[in-house]
Design goal:
The complex is a heterodimer of chains A (286) and B (1502).
Chain A (H helix, E strand, L loop, with lengths): L5 H4 L6 E2 L13 E2 L3 H9 L8 H5 L6 H9 L3 H11 L3 H7 L3 H5 L11 H15 L14 E5 L3 H12 L3 E5 L8 H4 L8 H13 L3 E3 L10 H4 L4 E4 L22 H6 L14 E4 L2 E4 L1
Parallel strand pairs in A: 3-4, 3-6, 4-5
Antiparallel strand pairs in A: 1-2, 7-8
Helix pairs in contact in A: 2-4, 4-5, 4-8, 5-8, 6-8
Chain B lengths: L15 E10 L7 H12 L16 E6 L2 H7 L10 E8 L3 H17 L3 E7 L9 H6 L2 E8 L7 H20 L10 E6 L2 E6 L3 H7 L12 E9 L18 E2 L4 H12 L24 H13 L5 H8 L12 H11 L9 E6 L3 E6 L8 E5 L3 E5 L12 E6 L5 E5 L4 E3 L1 H9 L4 H8 L1 E2 L17 H7 L4 H14 L4 E2 L21 E3 L22 E3 L16 E3 L6 H8 L8 E5 L1 E3 L3 H21 L4 E5 L7 E3 L2 H14 L7 E5 L6 H9 L2 E5 L1 H13 L7 H22 L5 H4 L5 E3 L4 H7 L12 H16 L29 H13 L2 H16 L8 E3 L13 H4 L3 E5 L7 H14 L2 E3 L23 E4 L8 H5 L3 E5 L10 E3 L6 H6 L8 E3 L9 H14 L4 E7 L4 H10 L4 E5 L8 E2 H6 L4 H14 L7 E5 L5 H10 L3 E4 L1 H6 L22 H4 L6 H22 L4 H4 L6 E3 L14 H4 ...
Parallel strand pairs in B: 17-21, 22-24, 24-26, 26-27, 30-31, 30-40, 32-33, 33-36, 36-37, 37-39, 39-40, 42-43, 43-44, 44-45, 45-46, 46-47, 47-48, 48-49
Antiparallel strand pairs in B: 1-8, 1-13, 2-7, 2-8, 3-5, 3-6, 4-5, 9-10, 10-11, 11-15, 12-13, 12-14, 15-16, 18-38, 19-28, 20-21, 23-25, 29-41, 34-35, 49-51, 50-51
Classes of the chains: A alpha/beta (286), B alpha/beta (1502).
Chain lengths: 286, 1502
C-alpha cells in the first residue's frame, strides 16, 4: 500500500457541480471532475483492507483496493486494466451505479468512505482520453454464431465477452437505437448519450453486429433466431412497478418507465418547466 | 527401549539435554576419591536431570574413567598383560541365554578375525535393586571383555583400530541378525585407555548399582560424568552418556544433514589401516541413535584418520571464524580448509571429551551452554555445568574459568598441564600450509570472470511463463517488490486463515506442502541479525574426497558468498573453464501431453543423466527449467533436486558433485530454504530477475536501478534463509544444506518415501499424480485459457488479503459481519448463521477438523449438561500485548473475562500496576494470565505476584522461532511506562529466551516463576510441530502446570509474511501428539492441556476437547467480536477501529464492550453444550481425550483431499484408558527445601515491621532462585514499593545456585562471598546485589570468573556490584539497573534498553548488539574494545562529559566500598589517567529519545 496514512491525511472529496446558471440551458452532465492530484489523494485514502468489504459488496466484484492503489501510484493504465478485468463498461457504472461498495467501505465506519465510484469514472475517462481504450478484436474466430436479444448493459457486456472469445455476435434491439435503458431510461444529466456511442463504436469495430428495430417474436421470427448456435436473452426489466397508493391513476400522473421511453421525454427532445419523479422510492425535483 | 512410532508420535524427535562435568588430576595421581567426587558432581547437578513417572528411573547417567589396571588384576580370574597392552570392553547383552551366547560368539569371532585374542570375560557385579521400575524392564546383562594383542607388535593406533573394527563389524552383524533382543546388545566402551559405567539410573544409584565403583582399588586419574534430561520418558540404557570419547550437553540441530552427508562420504573412504575391511565398517553412524551418539561415532572414525582428538573437535565444531576479523590467518585457513571436508555439527553444545590421554571440553560457536572450571593448588581440574558442585576452599583455588564460545579447554594428562586454547589450536593449525593450499585450489566465484554472454532468451512471453509457474499479482506486489526496494522481507499481521495446501482448490506449488521446523525448549532459536558474527551463508561447491587424506586437493571447490545467484553468475558457472570444475546442464522438463508417466520417466532420466555426467567427471550439475513451453512442462525444482540428491546418494555418487538450480519457481525465502534443505548448493531465480527488470523498466518499482533491485532481492532472500535456519538454531548454511528440517503436510508416504525420504509425513495426502495435475492446471491456464482481451495477465492472488476469486479465507466479509451482528445484538440466530458458515466452510475443505464428524452419539437432555457459566471458566483470551493493541481493547478483554471467571492474557508487554486493583464498579482490568516472553518487558516481582497464571511463551503460532520488534515510533510514553523502557526507543524481543537454551533451563525458569508466585499456575506455550509431543513430555517433567499447544495459524501484530504460512502446523496434530505422548508416558495426569489457534466455534472447541485439550484460548474471534474487521494492518498503527493502534485519534473509534466478548463466549459455550448433549457428556471433564467420538469423514470430492488419512490424529495408544487421560493431580514443585523459607522465618521483623536486619547463611549451587519467595511475600504486602532501601541485608557464603536474586525486590541487599551460577539477578526488581571474591582467595578478581552467563536478564530496577568477571550476555535486556562488573564475556549488554553498566575489565565480542537504550561505560586501556569488540549497528562511542565522569566515579566508589575491589581501587587511585580510557557506549536512538523527551518536558513546563 502506497500511503498507509492516506485516510488520515485526506478527507473525502466529491465532485462539485457546475453553477446552476451554467447548466440552465442544457440537460447535460454537470459534475466537475477532480484534478489528477485530488483523484490520486482520494485513491490513497483506501486502506487496502485485509477483508475488502467494498470488493465483496460490489456486484461485479471489482478489484477496488487494487485499482485504488494504482491510481494513488499514478499508474492509470494498470488501474484501467484492473477495472476492465471485472467490468466491461466502467463509464456506465462509474456514473450510474448506486455504489454499494461505498456503503460497505471499511473507512465508512469512522469517516467518509473512499469515493470509489468517482475513482472508477476517473480511471475510465482517463483511459478514453489517453486513447488506451480501443477495439480489441479476437485474434482467432470460432465458427460459432451467437444471437443476443436486447442491447442494454447486460446484452452489450455479454456481446463483448463472447465476441472476445472469438464467436460471431449479433445483437438485436427492438428500439431504434442501441443501449436499452441506458439510452431510453437514463436522463442525459446522468449519462450523456455520447458516452454510449463512444463505447458502441468500439464494439462495432471489434466486429459485433447490431440490428435495431428488431423485436424478436414480433418483427423478427424465432425460426430465424434459431439459426444461431446460441442465443442469449437479455431482455431487461422494462416492466414498470406501480405505487400501491390511492390516486395513482389520477390525471397527470405518469409512470416513469412509460414516460422515459416516450417521445415526450424532455431529455430526448422537448423541454419542460418542472417535473416530479417518483422512482424506486427516490424523488428528484428539477 | 524407545516407544515405537504410533499415532502422530514419531520416536526420532526425542531430544536430550543434560548436566555434565569432569574431574582430573594434573599430577597424574590415580585415586579412588576422584570417582566419588565425580559422582558428587552429578548429584549436585541433579536438578538438571529428570526422573520418569515412576519417580526412580533417571533418563540416564554414567561415568568414564581410566582403565583401573590394579583393580582388574585383582578382579579378573585370568592373567592380564601390562597396562595399555590390552583393551577392556563394557558389554550390554540380551538376558535370554541363547541370544546372549549368540552375541558373545559374534563378538569373539570378529575379535579373532582381526587376529586379536580374547583374554577372558568378567561378569560385572550389579545390585539390581538400585534402579527404577522402568529401567528394570530393559536392564541388560552386563559383562566386560578383555582383548589382547595376540603376540603382535602393534602401535597404540593400530591396536585401537583393530579393536574398533572388530566392535564395529560385530555391531553391524548383530543389528542385521534379526535377533529379537538385538537392541540389547551394545558396547558402551572398548578401549585400551578408558572405561564407561553407565545406565538408566539416577546419579546416586551409579555407584550403588555398579559395586565395582566402590572398590578402593578402583583408581583413576580422570572421571568424566554425565546425566541426561530427555524430553521423553522412553530413554534407553544405550543412550545414557558418556559415549566412548565424549559426552554432550545440548543438541545437534543439523544431525540429519550431517548423517546423510557422512553416509555419502563413505563411498570415498580409503584407509591403509583398514584396507578392504573398511567397507564392513559402514555405515559409520548406526541408525536410530541419538545426536550425541552419532557425533561420537564420527569422532571415533575421524580419530582413525590420524587426526588428534582436539583436531577432530575443531573440525566438527569450529569456531565462528567466517566473520572474525581478529583471528590469526593460519587458524582461519585451517577452518576454511576443513569446511571443504566437513560441515559444522551445529547446535548448542558443550562437549567434554577424552581419549584417556587428553581430557577437555569444547563449546559451540554460540556459547549457549554453561561450562565452568576450577583449577586447584592441590592439582585438580574440575569442570562442570555449574560451579560449586564440589567443596573447594577459596584459598585452594588458582583459577576460576569458563569455557568461552568456540573455545577449547584441554588438559594433557601425560604432561600434567593445561593447554590454553590458543596454544592447542596454533599447534594444530600450523601443521600444514592450509592458506597456501587454499590460495592454490579454492576458487571464489567472484574471481571467475564474467562471460559477457547475453541472457538466454525465452520464446514465450513473460506473462505466459509467469502463469505457467503460478505467479500472481500478489506475489509480485506483496512479496517481490518490497524485497527489491528494501532488501528485507515484507511484514504482515494477523494469522493465516486460508486452507493448508492439500485442502486448497487452487493449484499449489510443491513448496507449500513443506513446513519449516523450529526450535522450542530443547534448543534455542538464534538471532542472526544481532548475532550476525556467528552466522554464515556461503557455500562451497564441488566434489568431496577421501576424508582420511589431509591433502591440498580437498579444497578444490568453488566458493559462493551468497548462494542466491544472479543470471550472470550462473552463466559463469555454466561456462566455467577450469581444470578442477566441469558443469553439466540437465533440464527439469517433461512431456506434458503424456502427463504422469512422462513426469515419472523424466525424473528417472534426470537421475540417470546426472549419474552419467558424474561418471564422466562432471562435478557441478545445473538443474534447469529454462525452455519450459507448450510441449514441455516444468518439473517442480524441489522434486527434481531432492530426487537427484537422494538417488545419487543411494548410488554412492552424491559426494562427487554439487547441485545448482536454475528455476523460474522460487520467489519466497521459504522456497529457497526448501531447495537448500534438500541438497541444492546455489540457486538462480531467473524469473524473478526478469520480473524485477521488467517492473523497474515499467516504473512500478520506482527509484531504483534494476541491478540494485536484483541485488536487494538476493540479499533479502539470503537474510530470509538465515532467519529460517536460525529458527531451528542453525548458524551456517553449510550445515543447513541437505538437513531436510521440514515436516510434510499433505503428501502421501508412498510419494515422500521415494522423493523425500526421511521427511516425516503423518496424515498422508497427494502423490505424484496430483502433483502433475497441479502443474498441468497451471500449464493449461498459461497456454489455453487466457487469450481473452481485458482478462488480467496474472491472477490477482488473495492469499494475504481476501479476494473474491482468490484463495478462500475463514474470516471473510460474511463471517465477520455475522459474528459482529450476533454479539452486538446478542442474537442467537445470527450466531448460528455465523457458526454454521464457519463449520461448513471448514467442512468444505478448509481445515483438518473440518474433515472430522462426530460419531458414537449418545444423546442426553441438554439440561443435564453443565451450565455455560461453568464451561467458560475454561476459556481464555489470547496473549496480545498492551502495545500491540490499545488500552481500550486490552482492558475490554480483561474485564469481560474476569466477569465470567475466564482468563485474559497480558501478552508480553507488561501491565499497568493500576490495573491490579479492582475498579469501583467491581470490575477488574487485571489480566489473570501474565506472560513472560523473551523480551521480559514489565516482568517484575509485583507483576508476577499479581498473576493467577504465568505463561512462558516458548513460541508463537504466527512466527515460531522468531523474535519481535516494537519500533521506536510506536513506543509511546504510556507504553514505555509499563514496559519499563524509554519512550521512542525501539524494543527487541530476541528469538530465544536467553535463560532457556534447553529443557533443564526451562525447568529452572519454571522453578523461578513458581518461587516468584507459588499460587500461580505455570503455563508453557508451545507451537504445534512434529515432535511437540515429546517436548510436551519434557515440559511435564520440567514441572509445568499447564501446557498450551498453539496452532500455526494464530494471529500476530507483525511477522514476516512467509513465517505466517510456512512454519508450524494446525493444532489438531499438535494436541493429538501431545495427548498421545503424555498418556503413553503416564505423564498426562500432572498436566493441564490447553489449545488455541483460530478456534472460532463451539464445534472447534468440541474437537479440540475430544483430542485431549481441557482449556481453550481464543484471540482473533474475540477481537472480531470487539470490532476488528481484519484489516491486517496491525503492524502499521493505523487500525481504523481503534484496536491495533496507539494513535489517540484512532483509539476513539473503539466501539467494543465487555458484553460483546461475553456474548461471544456465551455463544461458543452454548454451541458446545449442544454438541455435548448429543455425544452424551455432562461435563467437559468427561469429554477430554475421548477421540473415539470422532470419525474421519467419508471420501471427499476434492481430488487432493481424498488421499488424506487422519486416523493417526484419532489414535489411542494401547491401554489408553488405564491411566488418567486428563489432569487429575498437581505437580510437586519441590519448593519445600528452598532457603527462602528459612530466611523468612528469621527475617520477620524486617518483612513485617520494616526493621533493619542483617542475616548470614551458607549457600551452595543447589540453593536456587534465592530471594524470589521473599520478594513475592514483600510484593504481596507492599506492592511495587517493596521495603525501604537497605532494610534487609542477607549475607551468603559459598557458591549460589542458578537465578540467585531472581525478581528480588526493593529493600533487599543480597550479598554472596564466593561466586554464583547462571541467571544472577534475573528480573531484578529493586534489590541490591553484591558478589564478592572471598578475602582468602589470592587470585585476581578481574581475571577470574565469578558469576555465570545471562546475568540480570530483564532486570528492571536495582543495583549490582560484581567483584569479578561475568559470563556471556551480561545485562541482556537490562531495562533499568545499574551494574559494575570487572569483565564480561561475549554479547554484553545485548538488547539493553535502559540502566547503566560499568565494565572495568575485558569485554568479549559483540558488545551492545541490539542495545537500544541505557548507557555502558567500558574501561578500554588497550583500545581493543574500540577496535572491533563493540557491535556498532545501533550505538555510538563517545567521550565522557562531566556528568558521565561523576557517575562513573560514584559507581566505582560504591563498588570499592561494597566489594573491596582491587581494580576499582587502582582506577580510583589514578583517577585522571583512568578516565582517559573509559569509552561511553550510547545507542543512537536512545540519545535522540532523551533529547526529544527533554524538549517535550520543556514545552510542558514552559
Amino acid at each position: 500500500m502506497g500511503n498507509i496514512t492516506g485516510f488520515k491525511d485526506y478527507d473525502r472529496v466529491d465532485e462539485k457541480y457546475e453553477a446552476v446558471k451554467e447548466r440552465l440551458d442544457n440537460y447535460n452532465e454537470f459534475t466537475i471532475a477532480l484534478n489528477e492530484e485530488d483523484s490520486r489523494h482520494q485513491g490513497s485514502r483506501c486502506m487496502d483492507c485485509g477483508i475488502p468489504f467494498c470488493h465483496s459488496g460490489c456486484p461485479l466484484g471489482n478489484l477496488i483496493p487494487d485499482f485504488n492503489e494504482r491510481v494513488h501510484k499514478n499508474e492509470w493504465k494498470e488501474a484501467l486494466d484492473m477495472l476492465h478485468s471485472t467490468n466491461n463498461f466502467p463509464e456506465f457504472t462509474g456514473r450510474l451505479c448506486p455504489a454499494p461498495c461505498e456503503k460497505s467501505c471499511v473507512l465508512g465506519i469512522i469517516d467518509g468512505p473512499v469515493s470509489i465510484e468517482n475513482i472508477e469514472k476517473n480511471i475510465v475517462e482517463r483511459g478514453f482520453q489517453e486513447g488506451w481504450i480501443v477495439a480489441n478484436p479476437p485474434k482467432i474466430r470460432t465458427d460459432k454464431t451467437i444471437a443476443i436479444v436486447g442491447s442494454g448493459p447486460a446484452g452489450l457486456a455479454a456481446a463483448q465477452q463472447l465476441n472476445r472469445a472469438g464467436h460471431t455476435i449479433t445483437v438485436f434491439e427492438r428500439d431504434d437505437a442501441i443501449g436499452g435503458l441506458l439510452r431510453y431510461g437514463i436522463p442525459n444529466f446522468k449519462l450523456e448519450k455520447e458516452i454510449i456511442d463512444r463505447r458502441l463504436s468500439i464494439l462495432e469495430e471489434e466486429g459485433i453486429q447490431f440490428i435495431t428495430n428488431a423485436n424478436v417474436g414480433v418483427n423478427y421470427s424465432l425460426e430465424k433466431l434459431n439459426e444461431f448456435d446460441a442465443i442469449v436473452l437479455c431482455g431487461g426489466a422494462t416492466l414498470r412497478r406501480s405505487l400501491p397508493t390511492k390516486g395513482i391513476n389520477a390525471k397527470g400522473v405518469e409512470q416513469a418507465m412509460d414516460f422515459l421511453h416516450s417521445k415526450r421525454n424532455p431529455f430526448l427532445a422537448v423541454r419542460l418547466k418542472a417535473m416530479l419523479f417518483l422512482q424506486k422510492g427516490k424523488m428528484l425535483l428539477l | 527401549m524407545a516407544y515405537k512410532k504410533q499415532g502422530v508420535y514419531l520416536p526420532e524427535f526425542e531430544h536430550d539435554n543434560c548436566g555434565a562435568g569432569f574431574i582430573c588430576s594434573l599430577n597424574g595421581e590415580r585415586t579412588h576419591d576422584i570417582i566419588h567426587e565425580a559422582i558428587e558432581i552429578l548429584i549436585k547437578l541433579e536438578h538438571r536431570g529428570a526422573v520418569s513417572a515412576d519417580g526412580r528411573t533417571g533418563d540416564g547417567a554414567g561415568i568414564l574413567t581410566d582403565i583401573p589396571h590394579k583393580f582388574f588384576n585383582k578382579a579378573c580370574k585370568f592373567k592380564l598383560p601390562d597396562s595399555k597392552e590390552y583393551g577392556v570392553g563394557m558389554v550390554f547383552l540380551p538376558k535370554s541365554i541363547n541370544q546372549y551366547k549368540y552375541c558373545i560368539d559374534i563378538l569373539e569371532d570378529e575379535i579373532k578375525s582381526q587376529n586379536l585374542e580374547v583374554l577372558g570375560w568378567r561378569d560385572v557385579p550389579v545390585k539390581p535393586q538400585h534402579q527404577g521400575e522402568i529401567a528394570k524392564k530393559t536392564e541388560p546383562k552386563i559383562k566386560q571383555i578383555f582383548v589382547g594383542k595376540n603376540g603382535q607388535e602393534l602401535s597404540e593406533l593400530e591396536f585401537n583400530a583393530k579393536i574398533y573394527a572388530a566392535r564395529k563389524i560385530a555391531e553391524h552383524k548383530i543389528i542385521h541378525s534379526r535377533l529379537k533382543e538385538s537392541d540389547k546388545f551394545y558396547i558402551p566402551s572398548l578401549s585400551t585407555t578408558t572405561l564407561i559405567y553407565k545406565g538408566l539410573l539416577i546419579p546416586e544409584d551409579i555407584r550403588n548399582y555398579y559395586t565395582d565403583l566402590s572398590d578402593p582399588d578402583f583408581i583413576t586419574r580422570l572421571a568424566l560424568v554425565h546425566q541426561r534430561f530427555s524430553t521423553n520418558t522412553s530413554p534407553s540404557w544405550d543412550l545414557a552418556q558418556p559415549f566412548r570419547f565424549m559426552c554432550h550437553n545440548g543438541e545437534i540441530n543439523t544431525l540429519r544433514g550431517n548423517v546423510s552427508r557422512m553416509r555419502a562420504r563413505e563411498e570415498l573412504m580409503q584407509s591403509d589401516i583398514f584396507g578392504d575391511d573398511i567397507k564392513r565398517l559402514f555405515p559409520v553412524i548406526l541408525e536410530g541413535k541419538s545426536d550425541s551418539a552419532s557425533m561420537d561415532m564420527v569422532i571415533e572414525m575421524l580419530l582413525m584418520t590420524g587426526r588428534s582428538l582436539p583436531e577432530v573437535m575443531m573440525m566438527m565444531v569450529p569456531e565462528a571464524w567466517e566473520k572474525d576479523t581478529t583471528m590469526p590467518d593460519n587458524k582461519k585457513a585451517f577452518y576454511e580448509y576443513n569446511s571443504c571436508i566437513m560441515e559444522p555439527w551445529d547446535g548448542p553444545a558443550s562437549v567434554p571429551f577424552t581419549d584417556g590421554n587428553f581430557i577437555g571440553a569444547l563449546l559451540d560457536r554460540n556459547g549457549l551452554r554453561p561450562s565452568r572450571y576450577t583449577v586447584t593448588k592441590t592439582g585438580y581440574v574440575v569442570m562442570s555445568s555449574e560451579i560449586g558442585v564440589l567443596n573447594i576452599k577459596p584459598e585452594n583455588v588458582i583459577r576460576h574459568g569458563r569455557l568461552e564460545p568456540g573455545k577449547m579447554f584441554l588438559v594433557d594428562m601425560n604432561a600434567g598441564k593445561i593447554i590454553e586454547d590458543e596454544e592447542i589450536k596454533q599447534n594444530i593449525v600450523s601443521k600444514k600450509p592450509y592458506r597456501k593450499w587454499l590460495n592454490k585450489h579454492l576458487l571464489p566465484l567472484a574471481d571467475v570472470p564474467y562471460t559477457g554472454n547475453k541472457c538466454p532468451v525465452e520464446i514465450n512471453t513473460i506473462d505466459l511463463r509467469q502463469r505457467m509457474f503460478g505467479y500472481t499479482m500478489e506475489d509480485i506486489d506483496t512479496i517481490i517488490t518490497p524485497m527489491c526496494k528494501t532488501g528485507k522481507e515484507a511484514i504482515g499481521s494477523m494469522g493465516t486463515d486460508t486452507p493448508v495446501a492439500v485442502l486448497s482448490e487452487k493449484p499449489q506449488l510443491l513448496y507449500n506442502y513443506f513446513k519449516q521446523l523450529f526450535a522450542q525448549v530443547t534448543n534455542p532459536p538464534l538471532d542472526g541479525i544481532r548475532e550476525e558474527i556467528i552466522t554464515d551463508i556461503s557455500l562451497a561447491i564441488g566434489e568431496d574426497r577421501n576424508i582420511f587424506n589431509r591433502s591440498p586437493e580437498q579444497c578444490k571447490k568453488l566458493k559462493i558468498q551468497n548462494p542466491v545467484i544472479s543470471n550472470d553468475d550462473l552463466d559463469k558457472i555454466r561456462n566455467i573453464s577450469h581444470p578442477d570444475f566441469n558443469a553439466v546442464e540437465i533440464p527439469m522438463l517433461y512431456d506434458i501431453k503424456r502427463g504422469l508417466n512422462a513426469l515419472e520417466r523424466s525424473l528417472d532420466e534426470m537421475v540417470f543423466k546426472t549419474a552419467k555426467a558424474v561418471d564422466d567427471g562432471c562435478n557441478i550439475i545445473i538443474l534447469t527449467d529454462r525452455g519450459a513451453d507448450k510441449a514441455n512442462g516444468p518439473i517442480p525444482a524441489l522434486l527434481a533436486c531432492s530426487y537427484v540428491h537422494h538417488s545419487l546418494n543411494k548410488l554412492q555418487k552424491r559426494s562427487k558433485f554439487g547441485i545448482v538450480i536454475e528455476s523460474a519457481e522460487p520467489r519466497e525465502p521459504h522456497h529457497f530454504a526448501s531447495l537448500f534443505g534438500y541438497g541444492a548448493s546455489a540457486i538462480n531465480p531467473y524469473m524473478v530477475n526478469e520480473i524485477i527488470r521488467q517492473k523497474v523498466r515499467e516504473g512500478s518499482i520506482a527509484g531504483i536501478e534494476s541491478e540494485k533491485a536484483v541485488q536487494n532481492f538476493n540479499k533479502a532472500i539470503g537474510k530470509g534463509i538465515l532467519k529460517i535456519m536460525n529458527k531451528i538454531g542453525i548458524s551456517t548454511l553449510h550445515s543447513y544444506r541437505a538437513s531436510q528440517i521440514f515436516e510434510i503436510l499433505g503428501l502421501s508416504s508412498k510419494f515422500s518415501d521415494k522423493y523425500f525420504p526421511h521427511t516425516p509425513t503423518r496424515i498422508e495426502g497427494i502423490g505424484l499424480y496430483e502433483v502433475e495435475r497441479e502443474i498441468s492446471k497451471r500449464h493449461k491456464k498459461a497456454f489455453f485459457g487466457n487469450e481473452i482481451a481485458d482478462n488480467l495477465k496474472l491472477d490477482v492472488g488473495g492469499d494475504y488479503r481476501w479476494r473474491r476469486n482468490g484463495e478462500k479465507h475463514m474470516f471473510n466479509p460474511t463471517t465477520v459481519s455475522k459474528l459482529q451482528q450476533a454479539v452486538r445484538t446478542n442474537n442467537t440466530n445470527s450466531y448460528e448463521v455465523y457458526s454454521r458458515m464457519i463449520n461448513e466452510q471448514s467442512e468444505s475443505l478448509m481445515t483438518l477438523r473440518g474433515l472430522f464428524e462426530f460419531q458414537n452419539l449418545d444423546p442426553i437432555d441438554i439440561e443435564k449438561v453443565e451450565p455455560w457459566t461453568e464451561i467458560v471458566k475454561r476459556f481464555k483470551t489470547g496473549a496480545m500485548s498492551y502495545g500491540s493493541i490499545s488500552k481500550e481493547a486490552h482492558e475490554n478483554l480483561a474485564i469481560a473475562m474476569n466477569r465470567i471467571g475466564g482468563k485474559s492474557n497480558s501478552g508480553e508487554g507488561g501491565e499497568d500496576m493500576n490495573r491490579f486493583r479492582k475498579d469501583l464498579n467491581g470490575d477488574s482490568r487485571s489480566s489473570a494470565i501474565k506472560q513472560v516472553a523473551s523480551g521480559r518487558f514489565g516482568v517484575s516481582s509485583n507483576y508476577l505476584t499479581n498473576a493467577k497464571e504465568i505463561q512462558i511463551k516458548m513460541a508463537q503460532g504466527a512466527k515460531p522461532g522468531e523474535g519481535g520488534q516494537l519500533p521506536g515510533e510506536k513506543v509511546f510514553p504510556w507504553i514505555a511506562e509499563v514496559r519499563n523502557s524509554t519512550p521512542y526507543v525501539g524494543l527487541i524481543s530476541p528469538p530465544p529466551h536467553h535463560d532457556i537454551y534447553s529443557i533443564e533451563d526451562l525447568s529452572q525458569l519454571i522453578f523461578d516463576l513458581k518461587n516468584a508466585n507459588r499460587d500461580a499456575r505455570i503455563n508453557v506455550k508451545l507451537v504445534s510441530e512434529v515432535g511437540v509431543g515429546t517436548i510436551a513430555a519434557g515440559v511435564a517433567k520440567a514441572k509445568a502446570d499447564v501446557i498450551l499447544i498453539s496452532g500455526y495459524d494464530g494471529g500476530t501484530g507483525a511477522s514476516p509474511l512467509t513465517s505466517l504460512k510456512h512454519a508450524g502446523l494446525p493444532w489438531e496434530l499438535g494436541i493429538a501428539e501431545a495427548q498421545q505422548t503424555l498418556t503413553l508416558n503416564n505423564l498426562r495426569s500432572r498436566i493441564v492441556l490447553e489449545c488455541d489457534g483460530q478456534l472460532k466455534t463451539g464445534r472447534d472447541v468440541a474437537i479440540a476437547c475430544l483430542l485431549g485439550a481441557e482449556e481453550f484460548g481464543f484471540a482473533t474471534a474475540p477481537l472480531v467480536a470487539s470490532g476488528c474487521i481484519m484489516m491486517r494492518k496491525c503492524h502499521l498503527n493505523t487500525c481504523p477501529v481503534g484496536i491495533a493502534t496507539q494513535d489517540p485519534e484512532l483509539r476513539k473509534n473503539f466501539k467494543g464492550t465487555p458484553e460483546h466478548v461475553i456474548n461471544f463466549m456465551y455463544f461458543i459455550a452454548e454451541e458446545l453444550r449442544q454438541i455435548m448433549a448429543q455425544l452424551g457428556f455432562r461435563t467437559v471433564k468427561e469429554m477430554i481425550g475421548q477421540s473415539q467420538k470422532i470419525n474421519t469423514k467419508k471420501a471427499t470430492d476434492n481430488y487432493k483431499a481424498a488421499g488424506l488419512d487422519l486416523s493417526a490424529i484419532l489414535y489411542q495408544p494401547e491401554n489408553y484408558f488405564d491411566n488418567p487421560i486428563s489432569n487429575t493431580k498437581k505437580q510437586d514443585h519441590n519448593l519445600k527445601g528452598v532457603l527462602d523459607f528459612k530466611i523468612i522465618q528469621d527475617a520477620h521483623p524486617a518483612i513485617y515491621r520494616k526493621a533493619k536486619m542483617q542475616l548470614e547463611y551458607p549457600i551452595t549451587n543447589t540453593d536456587r532462585s534465592v530471594g524470589a519467595i521473599i520478594s513475592n511475600e514483600l510484593s504481596k504486602i507492599y506492592g511495587d514499593n517493596g521495603l525501604p532501601e537497605n532494610t534487609l541485608q542477607i549475607n551468603f557464603t559459598g557458591s549460589a545456585g542458578q537465578s540467585f536474586g531472581a525478581f528480588a525486590t526493593k529493600g533487599l541487599v543480597l550479598k554472596v562471598v564466593g561466586n554464583t551460577n547462571d541467571y544472577l539477578g534475573k528480573g531484578l526488581s529493586g534489590a541490591k546485589i553484591i558478589i564478592k571474591k572471598p578475602s582468602k582467595a589470592d587470585f585476581r578478581a578481574d581475571e577470574n570468573i565469578i558469576v555465570g552467563n545471562v546475568c540480570f536478564y530483564g532486570a528492571t530496577k536495582g543495583e549490582a556490584y560484581i567483584n569479578g568477571v561475568a559470563g556471556e550476555r551480561f545485562c541482556v535486556r537490562n531495562s533499568g539497573i545499574t551494574a559494575v562488573v570487572e569483565g564480561v564475556g561475549d554479547h554484553g549488554c545485548e538488547y539493553m534498553t535502559g540502566g547503566r553498566v560499568v565494565v572495568i575489565g575485558k569485554t568479549g565480542r559483540n558488545f551492545a548488539a541490539g542495545m537500544s537504550g541505557g548507557i555502558a561505560y567500558v574501561y578500554d586501556p588497550d583500545g581493543k574494545f574500540r577496535d572491533g569488540l563493540c557491535n556498532m549497528e545501533m550505538v555510538e562511542l563517545e567521550v565522557l562529559d562531566n556528568i558521565d565522569q561523576s557517575d562513573i566515579r560514584t559507581l566505582l566508589e560504591g563498588h570499592s566500598n561494597y566489594t573491596k575491589s582491587e581494580k576499582a581501587e587502582e582506577l580510583l587511585g589514578n583517577w585522571e589517567e583512568s578516565l582517559k580510557h573509559f569509552v561511553k557506549v550510547i545507542p543512537t536512538d536512545y540519545k535522540k529519545a532523551l533529547e526529544r523527551l527533554a524538549r517535550e518536558q520543556q514545552l510542558i513546563t514552559a
